[in-house]
Amino acid sequence: MNKDIEFSRLRISRRRALAVGGTVGLGGVLAACSGNSTSSTSTAVSAGTTSGSTVASDAVSLLDAAPQCVLSKEETQGPYWFDVDSIRSDIREDRPGLQFDLALRVQDVGDCTSGGIANAVVEIWHCDAGGSYSGFESGSSGNGGPPGRPGSAGSGETSDGTYSVGDQEATTTDDGTYLRGAQTTDAAGIVAFTTIFPGWYMGRAVHIHLKVHIDKKTVLTSQLFFDPTTVGEIYANSPYSDHAGWASNVQNSNDNIYDPTGLVTLAKGPNGYLGAINLGVDV
Fold it and tell me: What is the structure's pLDDT at 112?
């Protein structure tokens, strides 16, 4: 295992929900800005306003170049979701890896002329560069656990947070919260996250999980995917290169969850990579 990843895992403490540094509740975000708070440390998705968006113009341009108003495919939430109940744009905490600035726009496929949906909550979570998920390090496959994972997707409690109510959570094995968080969409329906490019684990193509919540109801659960050529370029470098074997693992072409509506548009940014995708929901 990469030494930076190993060291960061040793520093995990109880940081769930509002105990995570720098997080605020959804109500506070909406009251403060009637839209999205994108106080990311990333220069790619920080200050700037374009067409009603609080996201920088390069991210908006990439969203405009990506497929639009296409219904996103509903996918399994997987066995590693719990309601972290954390509104924050930078979800890295201390995880080593290539900076990845991700912009997402929520669109109503029933009314494609109205732009994006404001005040929706987009939540994402994914594994670290070594293949493990926060909250499930002892059971996730990237950390030597079985491909079957630690339990079923509905083996825990039912979410009852500031943006998610009624979704079944998995039972966590530790107190980590890294690479998990949510943002409220701005007036243009856009959110932006700063994270690291996700790692991989046995049996799955490289992916990021997401949920879209409107009025605390989950209207989309899906997964995002990446061009394998770009993935290979990123994984040739540390810390990803210390977790060898990706090329012989499952790829998009033979992943039974992969769907092209989840393919992220990528571009190189000043600090790493910038990704963008429009999420079509039927509301």
Answer: 85
